[in-house]
Amino acid sequence: MAVSTTTTATARDADTRPDGPTPYSRTAAFGLLLIASAPLLILLVTLATGGSLEDAVLFIPAIAIPLVAAALVFRFGLWAKIVGLIVALLAAAVMYWTVLGLTFPASFGDFVPGMAFLIGFVLAVGGAIAAIIRRRATAAATPERRIIGAAGALVAAAAVVSGALGLLGREPAPNEGGTPVTMADFAFAEGTYEMATGEPARMVVHNRDGFVHDIAIPELGVDKVAVLPGRGVVVDVPAPAAGTYTVYCTLHSNLAETDPEQAGMAALLVVE
User: Fold this and answer.
1) CATH fold for the domain made of 179-271
2) Residue of 115, 69, 74 whose CA lies nearest to 91
3) 260 contact partners, CB below 8 Å, separation of at least 6
4) What predicted TM-score, i.e. pTM, was given to this entire model?
5) Which residues contact 2 (CB under 8 A, 6 or more apart)?
6) Each residue of 170-218: pLDDT tens digit?
7) Range(s) of the chain covered by CATH 2.60.40.420
């Protein structure tokens, strides 16, 4: 009986000491792992669809920092929880745009990272705050396993559904007459496209990336036609006057810039 009492007391001390694991440490650490998984998924999808490795490696810090923070939160006490909370908030400031992918369930590379990041942020912030508040409490009555299990199941379900929607919806570019426009590696395949003046024209747009794009020509009234990964759309262009117009992917460019080299994912349309 004495040995059992001593063992129980030792275990309780390990749970309640201010410099060691506390309740909700696992929740916060798992949230940080999900935050790290968002840029990791984007990196993998980029490489799998022929994207540039040079651009993809920019995501490595966004992967590594939350992973390190997760290890610290899981292993150490109060100071590590504060670090984990700060990392989660900084990640939100840098990677907030991933959540916009939730509006495109059929695009795995947008939807799943967005879901993982959102759930991870909630768990990391909520878990870190709870761990700080309850740093001297025991972990006996906390629902951490259920929280982590439910979060993991939700992300896994999102991945399956999004992947299925993406595969079922893949189709070749429309076989219609018009100016062919290909999107790949977050760029238009051609820097300049040409059309004749005086009559309505047509663009046949195909997205070869693993992420959703759109196409817009604001000066001609063509407004944000979405193009999902592996799919094509036909865009009708009103009869344009002679001149030079900027074609944008509004999701990955700066509409305030008319120079494609400065705008990002943009190209020129020359009408003669």
Assistant:
1) Immunoglobulin-like (2.60.40)
2) 69
3) 188, 191, 246, 266, 267, 268
4) 0.84
5) none
6) 776 666 678 899 999 899 999 999 988 877 788 899 999 999 999 999 9
7) 179-271
